[in-house]
Amino acid sequence: MSRQLSDYDYILPRELIAQRPLERRDDSRMMVLHRSGEKIEHRKFRELKMFLETDDLLVLNNTRVLPARQFSDEGAIEFLFLERLSATRWKCMIKPGRKMRVGATAKINGTLLRVEEITEDGERIVAFERDVDVYAGGSMPLPPYINRPTDERDTARYQTVFAHSAGAIAAPTAGLHFTAKILSKIPHTFVTLHVGPGTFLPVRSENIEEHRMHAEHFSVSKQAAKKINSARRVIGVGTTVVRVLETAARQTRLAKAFGVEFKDRQIEPQSGETDLFVYPSFTFRVVNALLTNFHMPRSTLLMLVSAFAGREFILRAYEEAVRERYRFFSYGDCMLIL
After folding, report:
1. Distance CA 167, CA 170 (A)
2. Domains (ranges, CATH) in the chain?
3. Does residue 152 sit in helix, strand or coil?
4. What is the pTM of this model?
5. Strand segments (E) across the chain
6. Could you say which DSSP state residue 201 is in?
7. What is 211-242 written as a DSSP string?
8. What pLDDT, on the 0 to 100 scale, is given for residue 251?
9. CA–CA distance from 69 to each of 17, 77, 107, 140 (Å)?
């Protein structure tokens, strides 16, 4: 199994990076990968149900994206607020960072803030002169590969129709294709993982085993665990769901080691933080199939789908997606891995 970062690279024409959502969520294309036989089909997302079987269960991430992007009052500095540390102190990402060294100041909505610290990852700890609502007047934190200002349409479209639990700074994008009508016809349940800054950070180590994921908060309810444990086949909608379920399985396995009885593949209701990094050689204990978008070269997300379907098969599928002019990344098309 490859551990080299360069082995998770591919060539992507920039014009294939979707800059805006389609008019209709369910108009997305869907590449279907059959791991048995390594067959590839080209379908539409609205055909998803025809690939599901009796007692299958879709598991989706119901996190809600916060309007965490703000600009300084003069418009020169962009802030992405990540975590509240106290009444007046926040962890955030800032662009351009060179203008906001320790001691630098700026104003947001008339309130002064000062940079107190720069973390190892380049994030800033800032202190406001008073308690403020950093989300008031904020906008959706679109990924940096969407090269345009956020507009009103993003408020709805960079949010799933089932978004419920506020806390993310990025959307669980595999869920963006669903409409309420499609979801009403498919057995499903929800878990929560609040997508954090790790989704934006590149893998810097050539040996991918040296990479460390940022911890993100997750939860699995009693009702969700019961449905998951009863399903014949679990279809994870997005890489965030995979990380939740496989983390939960490992926590449950740990509980078994201390004498708590669970059947194989079962999980228990729980909440906590996960920094699970999934790459080839990983053993999947819960997820049987995966619906996911197309991911950036050299990303942890590409490594996860490579672990699920095989690196060579995934890279061949990506090459075909480029030839067939699929739309890539957050507002792009999707892939169903069976």
Report:
1. 9
2. 5-66+143-337 (3.40.1780.10), 69-128 (2.40.10.240)
3. helix
4. 0.94
5. 29-34, 39-44, 56-61, 63-65, 69-71, 78-84, 89-95, 105-108, 111-118, 124-128, 165-168, 188-193, 216-220, 233-237, 270-274, 289-293, 334-337
6. P
7. --PPPEEEEE-HHHHHHHHH-SEEEEESHHHH
8. 84
9. 21, 11, 14, 6
Q: Digits of tens for pLDDT over the chain (338 positions)?
A: 689 999 999 999 999 999 999 999 999 999 999 999 999 999 999 999 999 999 999 999 999 999 999 999 999 999 999 999 999 999 999 999 999 999 999 999 999 999 999 998 899 999 999 999 999 999 999 999 999 999 999 999 999 999 999 999 999 999 999 999 999 999 999 999 999 987 767 899 999 999 999 999 999 999 999 999 999 999 999 999 999 999 999 986 555 454 554 455 689 999 999 999 999 999 999 999 999 999 999 999 999 999 999 999 999 999 999 999 999 999 999 999 99
- Closest-CA residue to 135 (of 89, 172, 82): 82
Helix 311-323 vs helix 300-309: crossing angle, to nearest 10: 110
Residue type, 157: R
3-state secondary structure of 60: strand
Helix H or strand E segment including 225: helix 222-230
Handedness of CA 289, 292, 297, 303 (dihedral sign): negative
53 — phi, psi (to 5°)?
Answer: -120, 170
CA angle 208, 211, 215 (to 5 degrees): 140
Tokens of 331: 């507002």
Say whether the peptide bond before residue 172 is cis (omega within 30 degrees of 0).
no
- Those residues whose C-beta lies under 8 Å from the C-beta of residue 217, and which sit 6 or more positions away, are 167, 192, 193, 194, 271, 272, 273
Coil vs helix vs strand at 328: strand
What strands lie across the sheet with 69-71, from one edge to the other?
A: 69-71, 78-84, 89-95, 124-128, 111-118, 105-108
Q: Strand, helix or coil at 273?
A: strand
